[in-house]
Amino acid sequence: MNAPILSARGLQKRYGRVTALNDCDFDLYPGEILAVIGDNGAGKSSLIKALSGAIRIDAGTITLNNEEVHFSSPLQAQEAGIATVYQTLALSPALSIVDNMFMGREIRAEGIAGRWLRKLDHGKMREIAREKLSELGLMTIQNIDQPVETLSGGQRQGVAVARAAAFGSKVIILDEPTAALGVKESRKVLDLIQDVRARGIPIILISHNMPHVFEVADRIHVHRLGRRLCTVAPDDCTMSDAVALMTGAKAPPGESIAA
Amino acid sequence: MSETIPPTRRSAQDFETAVDSADRRVAAFDPHRRGPVEKLQHVLHSNPTLVPVIVLLGAVAVFGVVSGSKFFSAFNLTLIMQQVSIIGILAAAQSLIVLTAGIDLSVAAIMVLMSVIAGNLAVYSGVPAFLALIIAFVGGTAAGMFNGFLVTRVKLPPFITTLGTWSIFYALNLWLSGAQSIRSQDIDSAAPLLKVFGETIAIGPARITYGSILMVLVFLVLWYMLNRTAWGRHVYAVGDDAEAAELAGIRTGRTLMSVYALAGFVCGIAAWASIGRVGSISPQAFYEGNLQSITAVVIGGISLFGGRGSILGALFGALIVGVFQSGLRLAGVDVLWQVFAIGWLIIIAVAIDQWIRKVSA
Amino acid sequence: MKTLFAGSALALVLCAGTAYAEDTSACLITKTDTNPFFVKMKEGASAKADELGIELNTYAGKIDGDVETQVAAVESCIAAGAKGILITPSDSRALAPVVGKAREAGLLVIALDTPFEPIDAADATFATDNFLAGELIGKWAAAKMEDPSKAKIALLDLNPSQVSVDYLRDNGFLNGFGIDIKDPTKMGDEDDPRIVGNDVTNGNEEGGRTAMENLLQKDPEVNLVYTINEPAAAGAYEALKAVGLEGQALIVSVDGGCPGVRNVEAGVIGATSMQFPLKMASMGIEAIKAFADSGEKPQASEGLEFTNTGVELVTDQPVDGIPSITSQEALEKCWG
C-alpha cells in the first residue's frame, strides 16, 4: 500500500483538565474515503480541528505528503491543501455562488485594470465556477450569480464541496455533510462525495449516520477516548459491530490496528 | 489516480432504494413556481436598490404634480443635490460600516472635527491650504482607525465604540474651535481652496456644485471598490457572516480595520466638501449628521444586519430625504410634518428590508 | 478655560466649583456649555462671584433640551445648601416643578435669558427683552427699505418647537416692521402677503443656508431676511451669494456675538440686536449676594414681568429715531 498522504502521530490536546486527544494517530491514504466515527466527546472534532488548523496541538506531529506541517490557522491548512467543509458550510448567504466559490481566492483581471484598479475578472471566475460545478454534476444551476441563501440545503452543501474541491486541494474534510439534510438531498450529497473521490481527491468524512458511512467509506477510523481505537473496513464489519467498538462494548480485533 | 481502492458501492441501506426511482430534481438548481408576491420578493432580493429608486422617482413625480414647476425645475432638483451632498458623503462612509453589520455614530463628528482642524490650520496658523486638507484627510483616516482598533482589537461593539468616540471627537472639536465659527470672509481671504466645493457650474438654470459632483464620484468609486474588487467581496462576506468569512480564509480583522479607516478618510473628504457647502466652518453644524446618514443608509435599503444592499442605495436614500423635504416644504407643509414623514420612511424601509430577507428557495 | 468647558461636553454634569471657604454659595446652570453665549455667561458669573467672595458651582446640560441633567443639577444645588440658583432652563415648563422645590428649600431662583412658564416659577428673571430685540431690527429694516410695502420677507427661525425666544424675536421683528402678528406666541400664523415664509435653521450656518435656499425657491425676490441669530444669518448670506442675490436682500439678526458683529462690519448683516449675557450673570450673582445678606429679592423692570438686561441695536447704517451703536463700538462689548 502507498504511503499515507496525511498522517498524524502522537497528537495531544488538553483543555484544562480535560484530555481531548491522547496520543492519537491518524492516517489517510491517497484516493480513499476515510470515515471518522466516534461517540460524542470521544475527541473526533478535536482531531479534525487539529488537522484543519483550527486548534494548535500540544504535542505530536502531522505530516502531509511526508512533510511535517504546523498549522496555526485554518487559512494555513487551506493553503497547504487541506480544505474543510464545516457543518456550518462557511458560506456567505447573501453572496452569489461565484463569489462564495472564490472567497479569498479571487481572480484579478489582467492588465492595468487588475494591476492598478484591482479589478476582478468576473467572466473568468464565472466560467471556472461553472466548469467546477459541472464536473461534479451540479450544473443544473440556472443562475450562477444567485445568492447562496436562495439554494436548498443540499445545493449549498454542493457549493461548499465544489469550493473545497476546486482549488487544487490534496485532502477534503467533510464535517457531518448530511446531518441537516432530508433523505433525497442526503443521497445527492453522497453521490457528490463519490464524484469527488472519483476525481482522485481523498476525503475525511465525519458522520454519525452509520448507513451513510457504510455506504461510501473505504475505511472507518473508530475514535474512542481521545485516540484511534482501530480502523475497520466496512466489508468486514457490520454497523452494530462499529457501534459496539465506538461505545467500548466490544474490543477491537487485533489485526485491524495495523491497517 | 491510484489503484489502491476501487470505487465501490455497497448497498447497506436497501430502505433507500425507493428514493432512486423518485423524482430527484428537488436537488437541482431550478426555480419552482412562485406567486406574484413571492416573485416580487425575489426581484427585490436580487436588486436591493430597486425600492429606493422607485420611491425616489415616484416622489419626484408626485411632488412635481403637487408643487408644480417650483419643485420640478432644473434649479430646484440641482439644489436638492447640493443640499444633500454632505449628508450623502457621510452616508457613503456610513454604508461601508453598516455593510459590515456595524454602525458609526461618529461620522459627522469626525467630519466637523476635521473641518475645524483644517480651518484652524489654514486660516489662523498660516499653514498652506492643501497641507491643511491633507492633515484633515490623514486625521479622518486616523479617527476611523481608532474606531476600527476598538472594534477589532478591543472587541467592543461598534455602537458603543462610536457612541464614545462621537462624544470624544465632538469635545475635541469644541476645544479646538472654542465653539466659534470661522467666518466665510476669513476663509475667502486666507484659504479659498477650502471652499472650492461650493463653486457652481451653471448649465442653463441648473446649478451643480463641485460638492454635488464629488458626492456622486465618492459613491461611484466606493461602488467600484465594493463590487469589482476582492476587498469589496470580503467586506460583504464579513458583514454577512464574519465567522463563515474567517473559515473561508478571509482575514476579517484586517478587512474591518480597512473599512473603518476608509470610512474615516471619506469623512475627511466630507469635511472639505462641508466647508464649501456651508461657507463658514461651524463647530455646531451637523450635530445630527450621524443620524441623518443612518437614515439615508436605511432608506437606501442597506440592511443594518450587514452584508446586504448596494452602496448606491444610500445615495438614493439621501436624495429621497432631500426630495421629501423640498417637496413638502414647497407644498407648504410645516417642518414638524416633514420630520414625521421621514420617520415613516425609515420604518417602512426597515420593514421592507426584513421582508426581503425572509426570501428562500 | 477652554479645555475645561470642552471636556465637560462629555460629562453629563460639570461641577467646576472653585474651592473657596466662603459660606455663601451659588449655582449656575446653563443649557449647554458649548454655546459661546453660555460661555460668556459663565465668565461673567465667575468674575462677579470672585469679586463678591461667593463660591460658584457651574453645571450644564449636554445639549439644548437636556432636561434631566438640569433637574439633577438643581437637586445637587439644593443638597449642597446653596443660597441661590441661576438657571437658563432648557425647557421652560418641565423645569418649573424642580425649581419650586428649590424655592421651598429657601433658595433664591433666578432665570437667566430664558423665562420659566409661568414666569413667576422663579423669584426673578434676568433676560434680554427678546420681543424688543426683534422690534428694534424690525423698525430699523422698515426705516431702511425704500418701500416697506414691497418687502418680501423670509423668516429664518430656530426650530419647530415654538420656544419663547424663537417666537418673541420673530414676532417682535414683524411687529417692529409693521405687520399684524396675530397670536404673539405663535410663529407663521401671519397672513401678510409680504411674508414669503418661515423655515428653521437650528441656529447654525448650515441650517441658515439650507433654509434660505428653500425660501428663495418659494420666491426668488426675497429682499428682507430675518434670522434668529448671527450664525444663521451668515448661512443665509452664503445662500444668497451662491445665486448672486446678496445685493438684493437685507439681513437682520439678533445676538451680538463677536463674529456676528464683525459680519455687521463686513456688510453681511445689516443690523443686529445685541444682548448681554455677561451682565445677566453678574447681575444674578449680585442678587444672590443681596438675598444672602438681607433676604431682599430683585424686582422686575417697569412694565415687564422680568428684569431687562438691555438690548442695543448694532448697525453701521444708522437711521433717524432709532438709537444704535456702530460695529466698532459693538466689538468692545460683544461676547464670544
From TrEMBL, chain A:
Domain ABC transporter, residue spans: 6-250
Single GO molecular function: ATP binding
SUPFAM superfamilies, per the entry: P-loop containing nucleoside triphosphate hydrolases
Pfam families in alphabetical order: ABC_tran
InterPro entries, per the entry: AAA+_ATPase (IPR003593), ABC_carbohydrate_import_ATPase (IPR050107), ABC_transporter-like_ATP-bd (IPR003439), P-loop_NTPase (IPR027417)
Record keywords, A-Z: ATP-binding, Nucleotide-binding
Signal peptide: none
Superkingdom classification of source: Bacteria
Annotated coiled-coil segments of the chain: none
PROSITE patterns: ABC_TRANSPORTER_2
Database matches in PANTHER family: CARBOHYDRATE TRANSPORT ATP-BINDING PROTEIN MG119-RELATED, SUGAR ABC TRANSPORTER ATP-BINDING PROTEIN
Name of the protein in its database record: Mannose ABC transporter ATP-binding protein/fructose ABC transporter ATP-binding protein/ribose ABC transporter ATP-binding protein
Lineage, top ranks: Bacteria, Pseudomonadati, Pseudomonadota, Alphaproteobacteria, Rhodobacterales
UniProtKB/TrEMBL annotation, chain B:
Superkingdom classification of source: Bacteria
Membrane topology type: Multi-pass membrane protein
Keywords, ordered alphabetically: Cell membrane, Membrane, Transmembrane, Transmembrane helix
Pfam families tied to this protein: BPD_transp_2
GO cellular component labels: plasma membrane
UniProt KW 4Fe-4S keyword: no
Single GO molecular function: transmembrane transporter activity
PANTHER family for this protein: ABC TRANSPORTER PERMEASE PROTEIN YPHD-RELATED-RELATED, RIBOSE IMPORT PERMEASE PROTEIN RBSC
The name this protein goes by in its record: Mannose ABC transporter membrane protein/fructose ABC transporter membrane protein/ribose ABC transporter membrane protein
Source organism of the structure: Salipiger thiooxidans
Automatic annotation (TrEMBL), chain C:
Entry superkingdom: Bacteria
Domain annotation Periplasmic binding protein: ranges: 28-296
Keywords: Signal
Record's keyword annotation contains Signal: yes
CDD domains according to UniProt: PBP1_ABC_sugar_binding-like
Molecular-function GO term, any one: carbohydrate binding
Segment forming the signal sequence: 1-21
InterPro entries in UniProt: Peripla_BP_I (IPR028082), SBP_2_dom (IPR025997)
Family, similarity comment: Belongs to the bacterial solute-binding protein 2 family.
Descriptive protein name: Fructose transport system substrate-binding protein
Species in which this protein is naturally found: Salipiger thiooxidans
